[in-house]
Write the structure tokens for this entry.
Amino acid sequence: MTARTLYDKLWDAHVIRSEDDGTALLYIDRQLVHEVTSPQAFEGLRMANRQPWRREAMLAVPDHNVPTLGSRADGIEGIADLVSREQVSTLDNNCAEFKIVEFKMNDIRQGIVHVIGPEEGFTLPGMTIVCGDSHTSTHGAFGALAFGIGTSEVEHVMASQSLMQKKAKNMLVRVNGHVGAGVTAKDIVLAIIGKIGTAGGTGYTIEFAGEAIEDLSVEGRMTVCNMAIEGGARAGIIAVDEKTIEYVKGRPFAPKGEMFDKAAAAWLDLHSDAGAHFDCVVELSAAEIAPQVSWGTSPEMVVPVAAKVPNPETEGDAVKANGMRKALAYMGLEAGQAIDSIAIDKVFIGSCTNSRIEDMRAAAAVIKGRKKADSVMLAMVVPGSGLVKQQAEAEGLDKVFLEAGFEWREPGCSMCLAMNADRLEPGERCASTSNRNFEGRQGQGGRTHLVSPAMAAAAAIAGHFVDVRNF
Amino acid sequence: MQAFTQHTGIVAPLDRPNVDTDAIIPKQYLKSIHRTGFGSNAFDDWRYLTPGEPGMDHAKRAKNPEFVLNQAPFDRASILLARENFGCGSSREHAVWALDQFGFRAVIAPSFADIFFNNSFKSGMLPIVLSAEIVDKIFKAIEVSPGLELTIDLEHKTIRGLGDEVIEFNVDDFRRYCLLNGLDDIGLTLRHADEIKAYEARRKVDAPWLF
């Protein structure tokens, strides 16, 4: 048999039928549902008088609109914004009507859709997983083919458990060797995006491999796959190893007993075969990766913390130079400015990229015994789920944050995209562990710098960016 | 779904790479539970001088005269021209709905983000990939004659209107077929319901833990 990549294997296992031009009908094992991209899909089902094909293959949770302040005990009554409240109550009603399992906002298991899927063992190796959210790529960390879709496709999967897809090309990103202390999964993936560009992975599925990826915990791997989309790839994947299987074992939706052993044996085949063909191979040396800070309005606009803001006048590509000028103007930065001289107004630790327990621990370890700088008006920590929050509190991390002057909030997407009340005001500058630094992403006129949790924590203490390795 | 066969319209030049879906339709408008009502908020942050929220009367907000879609004749454009990686970022199909409801039937760029590209077809909007050179040529032609109209012919996969040039473009046969006929994807797929069931029956044997 010819050598196949991990992506080839996942693809082949899910093709129901193919059209002459290569378009395939692909079977979808799981669909995660949230309140923002599902109402029109449910409405479509209703209008066509259709029922979900396989309701147990769906799990729903409100995450984008939920407030992070106040008690969850009030349920949706606790959402002050009535438009947001209507969207969450629409999800509740749709899930009740179509009999879909939903973790409501006052359920301890509620959280960001990409945090709870893995946490519950709803995400398993070898699956195809979709969600109306581009960061669905996160689940690729389990050797699953996971990608974001639009609302029409959400409805399509609800109605048929399948999707019409064209196979992407194979890209291998190999991170050779080991990263130094203080360099995290977030820095690795930002460095990758800095290298390939924000459209570098367009048309590809990226497999992340190499010692530095193998070294990562499963949570770190989720951070890397989460941002595959910021490099243009709908899906990022990582081969299954013992760490993956250990992570999955015992989770509520994971198979149990003999069935688990049988599954685990099959999962160990979820890696690219030796000699498998990749259409594109990119290599990075882990030892050369330093903590990263984005300076512009696209995730590819990223540099090591010791660097300076780049100069558009030395950029040869006219379209790129123009983009850089617009970014500098929006960000209120000058070319040549040292990154570690940039003062910040707010700090956000959270999002589907960095809100798992290890992220909480990494930030707390930097903060412990220190105080937030007075010039930083708000430093907020938003755990990824109720269970992450509970675990962090059991470890006393909430106290570390609170004593340092940080706010410890309820779980949700929060200021990653500012659909709820958490947002930047025009001109405010934020060190953020989220995934997108687009114009207005964290609030109209807000300025986002993407960093790791440890770097965000250090910036909150110092009041400006600092190299966490010397902090 | 609305069919797309042939379309002639004014081309609006949006001279930026990496136009993301947050820019096309900002997050506050995603709170809607409907499929319509997004047109007046397409490119909201660039188009208006004041911050917008759902429920406002957007016709009364001050428009940014610098923004291309606020300038005649581009306020009547139905074809959008942009640089690389158009539609990157969030998967929100609301971005396609907003462009469609603004009045765009097609977007031309050297490259598109995959999810946006897919989503476009679902609303009968055609994303057309042309080389960076040809895209640049169209930008320059618009500078010379604002109001330039192009005619997109999906049946023959051609664009006319740039001098005597006939520009050819590519689109997958299956997508072209669906778009030309305005076919509903779900209806098409459910014609294969037996094959989906047969697949599930096989998988229940090979990988029972998935069910």
Chain B is about 30% helix and 15% strand. The longest helix of chain B spans residues 193-206. The mean pLDDT of chain B is 96.
